[in-house]
Amino acid sequence: MSERFAAKRLLSRRTIGLRAALPAALLTAIFIVAGHAEERGQAARGGLEAKLEYCKTCHGLQGQGYMGYFPMPRLAGQQPDYIEAQLRAFIERRRTNPIMFNVAHVLSPSMLTALATHFKNLDPRPFGGAPRGSLSEGKKIFQEGLPEANVPACSACHGIEGKGQNEIPRLAGQLYAYTVGQLTGWKKERGQGSAVDTSAIMAPTAHNLTRSQVEAVAAYVSYLQ
Amino acid sequence: MKHIGLGIAILAIVASAAPSWAGGADSFGVRNCTWCHGASGQGYMVAPRLAGQRPQYVESQLRSFREHTRDNPFSKQYMWGAVAALDPNAAHELAIYFATIAPKAADDGDSDLAARGRTIYTEGIPEANIVSCYACHGPDAEGVRDIPRLGGLAYFYLKSRLEQWGQGYHSSAGSPMPMVASHLGPNEIKALASYLSFVK
Question: Within this chain, do residues A161 and A97 fall inside the same structural domain, yes or no?
Answer without folding.
Answer: yes
